[in-house]
Amino acid sequence: MSRSKCKSMRSTLKYSMVALPLILGVNCARAETLTAGVALDTMSSVEFSSYIQGIVEGLAQARYEKDGRNTDGMRCIYDWFYESGDTSLRDVIGGFEKFASHSPGAVMSGLINRECPS
Length: 118
What we know:
Elements: H1 3-24, H2 36-42, H3 45-66, H4 72-83, H5 86-98, H6 104-115
């Protein structure tokens, strides 16, 4: 590749990296820390559900590893969240409302530890 062509590509890349946040409407000055309250207030029900399921999956996997690959704790977490119907969702929303300034992971960890003590 010629030197001028390479320089042109670098220049284009540099300017696109500057312009991309502007094009996407990213406003870093208004960024918020994602707390439980922010998650409740800003996420759609589909986003919230997916986000919570991701936390559940991560905590279940961490529990599995912590328990020496014994599945009992992991199964308890899955049963509480996926098999209890609306009960676990009400618990999650209530926990997020009560501890709105805490991280979503911390709130979920507390709820899970209450239901499935290690």
